[in-house]
Amino acid sequence: MTRRFLAAFRAAWRDRSFRGVTASIVVLVVSATVFYSLTEGWSVLDSLYFSVVTGLTIGYGDLAPEQAVSKVFTMIYALLSVGLFVTFGTTLARAVISGRGRPGRTRHHKDDGSPTA
After folding, report:
1. Are 80 and 28 in contact (CB under 8 A)?
2. Which of 52, 88, 101, 105 could form a disulfide with 95 if both were Cys (CB 3.0 to 4.6 A apart)?
3. Residue 12 contacts by C-beta under 8 Å, 6 or more apart in sequence?
4. Helix (H), strand (E), coil (C) string for the chain
């Protein structure tokens, strides 16, 4: 399963838009982690944990922002991150379903996912 995921990630990585979404997620999560560390006084691990849990809409409820600015930031962050995480997952799933995520696959594809002749 791990090999298939990594193969799908490599296949999806060939798509420029997937690379953009991945970079956007990284920038957004790192920014949120720094923001929560500074504003709420949480550890970096707690801030990262909250950023990922919020972005994936899990929301365990064990951490919650207390500052008004953090609550506003969280609302905006949630709106942005949910769409990015969904796009990321959808692109990976598409790579697995199309067969591009199979380890050892030798057939080459163009950037749009169609097979080359």
Report:
1. yes
2. 101
3. 18, 91, 92, 94, 95, 100, 101
4. CHHHHHHHHHHHHCCHHHHHHHHHHHHHHHHHHHHHHHHHCCCHHHHHHHHHHHHCCCCCCCCCCCCHHHHHHHHHHHHHHHHHHHHHHHHHHHHHHCCCCCCCCCCCECCCCCECC
Query: Torsions phi, psi of 7, nearest 5?
Result: -65, -40
Q: For the chain, state the CA radius of gyration.
A: 17
Give pTM, 2 decimals: 0.77
The count of C-alpha atoms lying within 13 angstroms of the C-alpha of 6, restricted to the half-sphere facing its C-beta, is 5
Range among 67-71, 85-89, 113-117 with highest mean pLDDT value: 67-71
User: What value, to the nearest 5°, has the Cα angle with vertex 92 and ends 63 and 85?
Assistant: 30
